[in-house]
Amino acid sequence: MRTPVILLASGCFNPLTNMHLRMFEIARDHLHRMGQYDVIGGVISPVHDAYGKKELISATHRLNMIKLALQDNDWVKLSDWEAKQESWTRTRQILQHHQNVINAYLKSENNINVNEADLNWMPDNIHKQCGTNRGVVVKLLCGADLLESFGTPGLWADEDIEAIVGEHGLVVITRLNVNLPEFIYNSDILTKYLANIMIVTEFIRNEISSTKIRRALRRSESVKYLIPDKVIDYINKYSLYGSQNTKIF
Ligand SMILES: Nc1ncnc2c1ncn2[C@@H]1O[C@H](COP(=O)(O)OP(=O)(O)OP(=O)(O)O)[C@@H](O)[C@H]1O
Ligand SMILES: O=C(O)c1ccc[n+]([C@@H]2O[C@H](COP(=O)([O-])O)[C@@H](O)[C@H]2O)c1
């Protein structure tokens, strides 16, 4: 029997790009082709404002843009749990929270109090898709650069990396200039849990990044077809990313 999986992408989404949405599609295709997993949902979890990364705009705006971008998406949902915590939360805790909540909910057959915020990111027809006996695994969906950041000294705790890879698992999308097999080979922890790391090769190479989108916006260059139209309208409306009086349609 296939294991039900939710793919969770945590990051800045500053702003959300078409590549963020595409990551979910290619990861789901890949996992289904492998035959071992049943991807029952996708979750986008934008980072808390307190993460404090340069140029990070408020979570309110980032959440609103994701909501607009997902309006026509029938399987990827927004989770605002991380962004609404008191402060920044480690990725390990985010994965654990989502996995615990969904499994408790499934076991209880609706009889526990799940708060509104958590109901919002759960897949539609979750009971039908999973029944009560099949535990859902929440896997971290990320790009190769995020995996590479595991090697930045002092950034991630070793025990967190071990829990993320060992208890959840990674689905990693290739990115230009990152040699994933070599990076994994050089890490003892990653090699130990190799079976839990799925590498998804994006053959239709595409280097859209939020950094490049912000740069284009600052320079009044068009970002159409790189981010969803509704997100462009929102950026225009609130003059985000230095886009005042610019032509970004
Ligand atoms: N072009 C891409 N290819 C593969 N993965 C990507 C790509 N763009 C973003 N991602 C992944 O999406 C997740 C969320 O990323 P994030 O919001 O930090 O996007 P980003 O575009 O890399 O941001 P920034 O340019 O601001 O650093 C991360 O796991 C990141 O690796
Ligand atoms: O959990 C950790 O220890 C941890 C350490 C560094 C980064 N992260 C997460 O990694 C995500 C991407 O960060 P960044 O800086 O690459 O945009 C963001 O969601 C952070 O919360 C998480």
TrEMBL record:
Which reaction is the catalytic activity of this chain?
A: nicotinate beta-D-ribonucleotide + ATP + H(+) = deamido-NAD(+) + diphosphate; beta-nicotinamide D-ribonucleotide + ATP + H(+) = diphosphate + NAD(+)
Q: Tell me where in this chain the Cytidyltransferase-like domain is found.
A: 9-215
Which UniProt keywords are listed? ATP-binding, Mitochondrion, NAD, Nucleotide-binding, Nucleotidyltransferase, Pyridine nucleotide biosynthesis, Transferase
UniProt-listed Enzyme Commission number(s) = 2.7.7.1, 2.7.7.18
The domain of life for this entry's organism is: Eukaryota
GO biological process annotation, one example: pyridine nucleotide biosynthetic process
Q: Where in the cell is it found?
A: Mitochondrion
Involved pathway(s): Cofactor biosynthesis; NAD(+) biosynthesis; deamido-NAD(+) from nicotinate D-ribonucleotide: step 1/1; Cofactor biosynthesis; NAD(+) biosynthesis; NAD(+) from nicotinamide D-ribonucleotide: step 1/1
Q: Which GO terms describe its molecular function?
A: ATP binding; nicotinamide-nucleotide adenylyltransferase activity; nicotinate-nucleotide adenylyltransferase activity
State its cofactor: Mg(2+)
One Gene Ontology cellular component annotation? mitochondrial matrix
InterPro entries this protein is in?
A: Cyt_trans-like (IPR004821), Euk_NMN_adenylyltrnsfrase (IPR051182), NadD/NMNAT (IPR005248), NMNAT_euk (IPR045094), Rossmann-like_a/b/a_fold (IPR014729)
Family under the similarity heading: Belongs to the eukaryotic NMN adenylyltransferase family.
| Role, per record | Catalyzes the formation of NAD(+) from nicotinamide mononucleotide (NMN) and ATP. Can also use the deamidated form; nicotinic acid mononucleotide (NaMN) as substrate with the same efficiency. Can use triazofurin monophosphate (TrMP) as substrate. Can also use GTP and ITP as nucleotide donors. Also catalyzes the reverse reaction, i.e. the pyrophosphorolytic cleavage of NAD(+). For the pyrophosphorolytic activity, can use NAD(+), NADH, NaAD, nicotinic acid adenine dinucleotide phosphate (NHD), nicotinamide guanine dinucleotide (NGD) as substrates.
Q: How does it assemble?
A: Homotetramer.
Q: Which PANTHER family match?
A: NICOTINAMIDE MONONUCLEOTIDE ADENYLYLTRANSFERASE, NICOTINAMIDE-NUCLEOTIDE ADENYLYLTRANSFERASE
- Please report the name of this protein according to its UniProt entry: Nicotinamide-nucleotide adenylyltransferase
Its lineage reads: Eukaryota, Metazoa, Ecdysozoa, Arthropoda, Hexapoda
